[in-house]
Structure formats: structure tokens, C-alpha cells
Amino acid sequence: xxxxxxxxxxxxQQSGFDMSESGNQKLLRAMMTVELWxxxxxxxxxxxxxxxxxxxxxxxxQVPFVSVPAELFNQWDDFYYPDDDHFREAFSDLKLIVLSxxxxxxxxxxxxxxxxxxxxxxxxxxxxxxxxxFAAREALSRIEKVGDIQA
Length: 151
Prior knowledge:
Largest sheet: none
Radius of gyration: 20 Å
């Protein structure tokens, strides 16, 4: 159900739910807060995985049928939407700059990496992986230094 299609229910007072206009506005605000949290968590979790070699190995152990190197690239592509207004709202301006800087490195590495990615152990030995992991660690460090992500 679309959030903006919610209308007060005549029986809502009896059910204990406040579905007045202010109730709807609170619900929409809560839904937006959750959406922003999801944007932040997806980006931070992806950066953490890219930065964490042992974490990548554990991920590969848990899902041996998945190409973890491909997953690293796919996750960033799936979650990084710098032109989306809601995405931009999820991060402070300084953090958007940090993410943009990482994205430039990410794209350079992606452009220089073969379409068919190596197995994880081979990929981790490649300069591309080292560059990407270093950039992710730097981004996480800078995000931490900037402070809490705005909500």
C-alpha cells in the first residue's frame, strides 16, 4: 500500500490507533526515517565488506556458490544512488563528498578490472582489490571522523 494513500479509518479510534492526519504524518515520517536508515546501513555495510578481507572470506565460506568479488561490485552499484533525493537526504553533505570520492575510485577499479572477475583468493592478491579495500577503509574512517550520519 502506498503511504500517501492512507486515509483515516472511521473505526480507528476504537482500535486504539490514532489515524488522524497527525497520525498519518507521524507514520509517513517514521517510514521515511526507516528508508533513510536503510540507505545508510546498505552503504556502510557494503563499504565494510569491501574493506574487510577476512569478512569477504567468511562470506565466501557461507555462500560458496556466490562470486564475492562480483558481489562487492554489485552491492555498491545496487545501493549507491547519489542523484536520488532520498539517498542524498540520508547523508550529510560532507559524507556525500566522502562517498563520491570512494565512488570515483570504485569506478576506476571497475573500469580496470576484467568483466569476468577472478575467484576471491586470486582477486584479493590483485592491486585492484587492494586499492578498493584501502579506499573503503578511508571512506569509513572519514565518515566516522565527520560524526554521526544525519537522520
